[in-house]
Amino acid sequence: MNRTTINPQDRRASLETKLSKKLPHIGGAVIDLNLAQNRNCEQMIGIAQVPMGIAGPLLLNSDQFGQKELDIPLATTEGALLASINRGLKATRLSGGITSFHENVGASRGPHLKLTNIAQGRQIIAFIDTHWEELKTLAHETESHLALQNWQYQLAGKHLYLRFSFDTAEAMGMNMVTMATQAMLDFISKKFEVTTILSGNACVDKKPAWSTFLSGRGKKVWAETIIAKEIVETVLKTSPQNIVETVQSKQLLGSALHGSLGYNGHFANIVAATYLATGQDLAHIVEGSLGVTSAELDGDKLYFSVYLPSLMVGTVGGGTHLPTQQEALTILGIDKPFTGSASYLAEIIGAVVLAGELSLTAALASNQLACAHQSLGRGKHD
Of 37, 97, 90, nearest to 62 (Cα)? Predict the structure, then answer.
């Protein structure tokens, strides 16, 4: 198929008609749209600093938010990515959609306290336990939309590492939790003579870590689908058995043997494209790249699922207020933040990750990956 048959302006106009909304900022491109469509981004409608395309629709069956059919804005310079995601979305849509679930485990900040000795560390731990309600009040006073959820600690010699987790409502919330943690540290420091570092890396913010993999951060998301054998064969051009074997060889065993913290094919690709389009903090792509892909035979059908332990996302604050990013959120049905909208966004991202992971795995299982990148990722040359 000639990817330039429909130009970005016409595709965007069609989307505007479908949404009954104008997308002037997405359309305010400062690069040659047709040139970018030929090399960097399928399904283009404009740019968000980099080319932005549309994939889908996604048929989402959310445990909390019900069934939704959504076009997905994605910003990327990686040719073939949107075409691949689009294929995964088609296969899942024809199979009844993607079922999604989430858990809000909270944004975390992890300060360090330099102690006199271990005994002092034990005293501080006991103090936090007995003054927990006061600390919750202090945190809430710094930001009315924030609530202290829980805490953990690690004590080693003269070093005490705390990890406080907060419900940040519809914000990603790291600015909020930073202010709250400082107020809590000030309260603790009035009782104990300690030197503190606001972030001692117990939160492992914007870094890959097993603690994040195991405990989660922000939103945990699970997504799953069951695809009929005929759809695997006609849309994904392979078989359920081949996909299962590829997941076992690549995402699982291959990752384990080489020390990967992500047991998946390319979560980061889809997380990056959705984060950029919707105004998320791009450094949190690191945590979003963690997670597990699994596949099994369900009779002659394919069961396929993904688990993402850390999606640090919001629908207010950060880059979400920028015009282009606001329009991208509007495409997803988030015209304005609503209660649960950040979790809703996380579930959407998790489902799109599944679609992208499914299509990549199918391409590997059928030995079509190089061919796809040759035809879509390298563009045309005059």
Answer: 97
Helix axes 132-142, 118-130, angle to 10 degrees: 70
- Spatial separation of the C-alpha atoms in residues 71 and 78, rounded to whole Å: 19
Cα-to-chain-centroid distance, residue 317: 17
β-pairing, 112-114 with 195-197? antiparallel
Residues classed as catalytic? 78, 281, 373
Domains of the chain: residue spans and CATH: 8-104+216-377 (3.90.770.10), 111-202 (3.30.70.420)
| Predicted pLDDT at 371 | 62
Structure tokens at 22: 């104008």
For the entire predicted model, the pTM comes to 0.90
Residue 31 has a pLDDT of 61
> Could you give the C-alpha distances from 296 to 241, 245, 248, in angstroms and in order?
8, 9, 10
Q: Are 98 and 358 in contact (CB under 8 A)?
A: no
In whole angstroms, give the CA distance from residue 115 to residue 157.
Answer: 8
d(CA 101, CA 247): 22
